[in-house]
Amino acid sequence: MDTDYVQRFLFENLEVRGRLVCLTGAWQRMTEGRGYPAPIVELLGHATALAAILGANQKYVSGSAGRITLQVQGSGPVQLLVADCAAVLVADCASGMKIRGMAKHAPMLPDDARASRLFGDGRLAVTLEDGASGRTYQSIVPLEGESLAAIFKHYLAQSEQLTSFLRLFASGGAVCGLLLEKLPGADARDADGWNRVMHLASTLELQETVDTQPYDLLVRLFPEELLRVFRIDPVEYHCPFDVHNVERVLRGLGRDEVESILAEKGAIVIKNEMCNHEYRFDRAAVETLFA
Length: 291
Fold this sequence. Notes:
Layout: E1 5-11, E2 16-23, H1 25-31, H2 38-62, E3 67-74, E4 78-89, E5 95-105, H3 115-119, E6 122-129, E7 136-142, H4 148-159, E8 163-170, E9 175-182, H5 186-189, H6 193-201, H7 206-209, H8 214-221, E10 227-229, E11 233-237, H9 243-253, H10 255-265, E12 268-272, E13 277-281, H11 283-289
């Protein structure tokens, strides 16, 4: 059963569209070995769900591979939170997404896990790399709200100017998110439609999404509504161990500089925070590198 996906859907008789994301194995691989405390796991999970939700919509709109990056910088215990989602295309015109992310944080009080407390003052930056045009676009909004969902809804109100409903969950084992957007003309189409689907969506719980196919979940969540679902976008964690790229960087520094670092430190250690990889070069490795 595929539980790493984004499912796009429409309400046929309403001017409302939605995206449902569920991540299990991909999320577990992303956080493996990180040792994040529970509040950080929750925040990073929410950010990753949002990146996947945005990535699925951008890929659908442009028809080309692209990348969405959410970055939160704050003055509180959480200084940096990054979630990245890259869209990929395959030969049969199917598509998928690759996620990665990280958090940088200081010690925090265990009795207050509110995003406003953990972030303090700061900003949310959403960066879009458009694969079709090669251009990069960025939107920046202040951190206004008690949760990452509230902060993101503020971003949506400014960038897309659409009324939205957002529900996010994250634990060590799974992440899920549900976004509904009210399109222009929704009230004229069905005056009670938006309130009706929001009420139903607010009953969604994290455990309902795990080990459940998205279509079955949506039908159970909105039993009286006619739904159109699109092809599932599978999601995987992608942050490979790339020693060759690090070797190119060291060669670019030159042997004299590398030898100087080696003499001072005894070994060259490079940490990739985004992928949680450590690259270590001792004397033998340096000799091989410049042989």
